[in-house]
Design goal:
2 copies of one chain form a homodimer.
Chain A: E1 5-12, E2 15-22, E3 25-29, E4 31-34, H1 46-51, E5 57-59, H2 61-66, H3 70-75, H4 79-83, E6 89-91, H5 95-101, E7 103-107, E8 112-115, E9 122-125, H6 127-137, E10 141-143, H7 155-175, E11 183-188, H8 194-207, E12 211-214, H9 223-233, E13 243-245, H10 251-259, E14 264-267, H11 269-274, E15 278-281, E16 284-287, H12 307-311, H13 314-322, H14 327-353, H15 356-369
Parallel strand pairs in A: 4-14, 5-6, 6-10, 10-11, 11-12, 12-13, 13-14
Antiparallel strand pairs in A: 1-2, 2-3, 7-8, 8-9, 15-16
Helix pairs in contact in A: 6-7, 7-8, 10-14, 13-14, 14-15
């Protein structure tokens, strides 16, 4: 088994073209990871996810530990086999969902205790148990447990939280069983404060992780604030480690963050939007529920090669969504994940060719055009 | 364009192996038609439906006329193009759903008026409008409008209803635009009364349809009553027309009805069951929600070649259904439709080889075995 590694093959400005090698395969970066919360990228067959170009999916430790349980998944041969995804998997630490979904949670230096949002059962998540659960899931990339506070101007609060995450980073590293092809990522915290971000990054570099994640963004701050944080942080990030911006984001977020040197992303946006009738296209987003699509024989995007665009009209997808047919979310999710992967493909190609600036310009010009004009009513 | 036709290539007892030729392709019979109620076989891509071996799907006139509307589907190029199903499509007349779903319906000699269950809008369905709607949908096989009463011992009531359906059959035939490759089926009514069934069949033969459907069964009567009706009716059915038993049924129903000379079936059972956690297998049905499957690494059916059985464990599908993941219905529906098509394949093969009796015996023996034994707990 090859060692877990990251190699850069080209740079264009701050943007990097690279490859992450894991136990279950290679990930071309910059990469977007579709979210497979409970062991499934919602409304998609894993083969379809792979067809979009996705090389890695994300699993949520919080959801999987509660149902069906990490021990059960381990007994069944690990998450890859369980969910029929032979490629790389990254699992988060569970901390973020504990904060947003669980009940009666109690945070201490040791970790966090909480009640399941599913059945009220009591659980504990510490840096050590999180690592252990992710090992049972057989994650190629394991995330340290961290505390992820909401966007805040209270520097003392953010500092205290960041320091706790740093102590948890150390414990996570100590608990991680270093096996060939498996990697552990630390998470930079520090909110919108450049000096705290720098301090966090340096602490993680001392501990030495396989990759560096950037947490605590996309939690309510405006996009320019997020980009400023990235610009302040990047000079303090190691060049030879993959950089993963957690929970981000819109297509515009991805383009801006890649330009600033980020290599990996995950977000529920393409999948969740697909279940609410929203489609991402080169020319911006489309709410397919809108009545203007009811008679439109054209595809969501005539340039898109996904099955939803190749074989179906806006009128049909509009009908499916209005009629609450399962095929609606199936087609829209497929399209959205395809769109995100297509965007990453173009970003990688442009970095490799040294034409990222032109691509970014075209990307924004396309968005400015807005969606295609409605057809004239025939009668 | 070839004419609509039905040809028998082999017989085994009363069972017939044949082919129906339509404007959009050939259907090998006996055939099971998956139900695509609102222009989609729920939770499946049309390509997947075809992969199971299905050659024809059914569309519901009632649902489609209300949403998205027959005129709209016609403007968009017909139902085949709309739903991306290039093969043959049969549409029902809408009558059955008017009775079971609509509000404030009023029946007269002319037809039936009703309010949509979706938005309360008023609509009328007569033999003529039903035929016209099905023409707009571009159905390869059009069904006459009939009245379908519930199972009843009241012979006078059933007689009156059957006579109305016969008058509607005549009007349907007059309204049908005979085009090459397109067929119109009449519907035999008469409840459980052999003489009424005979009278209905003779009336339809006089009118002359492309195929003969059998309605008013699978409406609450026991299976042996249904089989008795089929046995009483078959001597009065024309040999050279396909016979379609509407809304039937369980795998046992299909095997029994094919043995008695039925050629075509439709039923929501495989698709609807797939959305409630029920899987059909050679050894009977499996409720995948049951806790006994939570740790079971085995497929639903080790002999089944569908994606759900090839790539996923019972434990995983159990998890998906418990977690209300869309992939659960997707996999179970695929499996169930595959199972039904596989059963039809075996029936056709057995009729062709003259071994239907042996197959039916094996079919029942397999069912008697019951589902596979639960695994011993490992601890």
């Amino acid at each position: 088994m090859a060692a877990f590694s990251y190699k850069i093959s080209a740079k264009d400005g701050s943007a990097r073209l690279g490859q992450v090698t894991t136990a279950h395969g290679v990930i071309d970066t910059p990469a977007f990871m579709p979210v497979g919360t409970a062991g499934t990228v919602k409304a998609m067959m894993p083969g379809s996810v792979a067809e979009t170009g996705a090389q890695i999916v994300l699993g949520n430790t919080y959801h999987l530990m509660l149902r069906p349980g990490a021990d059960r998944i381990e007994r069944l041969g690990g998450l890859h086999k369980f969910m029929n995804w032979p490629g790389p998997i990254l699992t988060d630490s569970g901390g973020f969902q504990v904060m947003s979904l669980s009940k009666l949670r109690k945070m201490t230096e040791d970790g966090v205790t909480f009640q399941s949002h599913i059945d009220g059962s009591k659980h504990e998540l510490t840096p050590e148990t999180s690592i252990d659960i992710q090992r049972k899931l057989d994650a190629d990339i394991t995330m340290q447990l961290d505390e992820c506070p909401a966007h805040s101007d209270d520097k003392k609060l953010i500092d205290t939280s960041m320091q706790l995450s740093l102590r948890w980073a150390e414990r996570s590293k100590a608990a991680f069983d270093d096996r060939a092809g498996y990697g552990l990522f630390g998470i930079v915290q520090g909110g919108v404060f450049d000096d705290l971000r720098e301090q966090s990054a340096k602490g993680l570099i001392d501990i030495d992780f396989h990759g560096m994640a950037i947490g605590g963004l996309a939690v309510g701050e405006p996009q320019d604030v997020m980009f400023n944080v990235l610009e302040g942080l990047m000079p303090h990030m190691p060049e030879d480690k993959p950089r993963y911006l957690m929970g981000v984001g819109t297509p515009e977020d991805l383009v801006g963050a890649v330009s600033r040197g980020v290599d990996m992303f995950d977000c529920v946006m393409p999948t969740r939007s697909g279940r609410t009738g929203k489609a991402f296209t080169r020319r911006g987003s489309v709410n397919i529920r809108n009545a203007r699509h009811a008679d439109d024989p054209r595809p969501l995007d005539e340039h898109c090669k996904c099955p939803a665009c190749k074989d179906y009209s806006r009128a049909y997808i509009h009908h499916l969504v209005k009629a609450q047919e399962i095929l609606g979310p199936m087609l829209l999710t497929w399209h959205n994940v395809h769109y995100y992967q297509d965007l990453m493909w173009w970003l990688r190609k442009s970095i490799g060719e040294g034409t990222l600036e032109e691509f970014v310009q075209r990307f924004h010009d396309d968005k400015l055009q807005g969606d295609i004009e409605p057809l004239l009513k025939e009668k």
